[in-house]
## 1
Amino acid sequence: MITGSVSFLGYEMRVKTSRVIVAMSGGVDSAVAAARLHTEGHEVVGVTLHLWDYPDEGAPGGHGRCCAPEDQYDARRTADLLGFAHYTFDRRELFEQTVVAPFVDAYLAGQTPSPCTACNRGVKLGELFKIADRLGASFVATGHYARIERDDAGTPWLARGRDGSKDQSYFLYATPPEQLARLVFPLGESTKAEVRAEAVTRALPGATKGESQELCFVGAGKGAYVDFVQKRADQARIRPGAIVDDLGRVVGDHEGVHRFTVGQRKGLGVALGTPAFVTRIDATSGDVHLGPEDRLLAGGAELDDLVLARDVALPLRARVRIRYRHEGVLGHVVAAAGERRASVRFDAPARAVTEGQIAVLYDGDRVLGGGRIARGIARADGAVVVPSAP
């Protein structure tokens, strides 16, 4: 037991112990995060959450690079190399209930979910803090590219990572303040190139392995999401229907709304002679509506399941990211009728506001909060339809 002041990447903190749990997926990022903390002299304990059982590497579709069996092995090899303890905890049932089943349900309802935000919010962080408490650790560290900043009173708030191309603060928008106070992001000030180079220099296991490109529980390749939902869905819930053009004419049919997402252009199964995009999905009727690209433009969004940082209140102005790779659009956010609901009006139209995705609110680098997109709002000039079903 160590009592006193310890430093996490330059930040002085008063703690009862310097023991820190490091979430280790077996990838490069978490390995370097653990190595940095170990080098600083902290008592590191590596923790891997076993979330999913994967097909054999050679099986059709394979899997994404995240927590696969060989990655769990690499996490343990890293711990052995650096000389700290490592444990794996089975959380497959929780992951199935919290992430996988809602993912399937959302696609069957004509929505496009954000499973990585659900995983961080409902599985990873909560379980890591429970394990930290069991093991007597004061802090939890992850390999996310995000930062924890503090105001003059020492209150923590979530901020974007310095590497804009890798920033992962979007996925952490709902992290409660009591967790932020104990979270450490050793990579927050680094670029991916710097982290990769450090892994090679340290000769960490898997230092040159590829990046994770797909969801960890969905196979790679064309049509993987559709195949995954098709295999796991209650067949009675699959909703086939008509493909309808911008004039309301039926131009084809399809085998299920889970095969489409708002903004999609390829793989529509019809050819209209001009570029066409999915503008709306009606899971009740099964109709998938197509139209020109300008029909995707929306003037705002209705949000539910809203989570705001502790000192943030509505109304406010923010930069709103309506999906992970979206650079964001400025807008006004006001309270809406109902609990934990808000309405966002964009300064300029945004493309493909998609039901089920997460809108995250920013003030500069600071994360103010976010919520699930319940529906898009038509532009004020009335020139476009609402791009997602109510």
## 2
Amino acid sequence: MATTADFRNGLCIQFNGDPWKIEKFQHVKPGKGPAFVRTKIRNLNTGRLLENTFTSGVKIDIIRIENRKYQYLYSEGNDYHLMNLDNYEQITLQKEFIENCKFLKEGENVEVLFHADQGLPLSASLPSHITLVIEHTEPGIKGNTATNTFKPATTETGASIQVPLFINEGDKIKIDTEKGAYIERVKE
């Protein structure tokens, strides 16, 4: 058993019978009344985000979790097939369990979060940065490198993203997977 003093971003807890991951928290000590903790927690079964307030000092159950490296193989409809890099065991996850799956390409490594006691996969996350090739965009205009304007582009995975005007089809770009935003063009 732990208390709200043990809260930290990324901590997984058992709450209302479901596993939840703490996305954000803030300890609040008002001038009048007891202290409390405001949290944003994500249900690891459904992906639903909930804002909840815990009274300071309340007991909580911490879930033991494990991170395992998997490689994305292929997808069939809503099912994504992944392979464990240590023992080559394959698992299938639903699209909802993978954060920002629109940037996932075959052969990419993924971090899968497992409930250590039950052995069930809870969620999967991509690396923070990923390199993709631009499949389609309007042609770039020479000399438009200093402006801060963007145009739509489609990546090799089919994801739509805003890129600067100087990016052309066939260019490799680095993308921030959490924000879904362009970072830089990758030179070879």
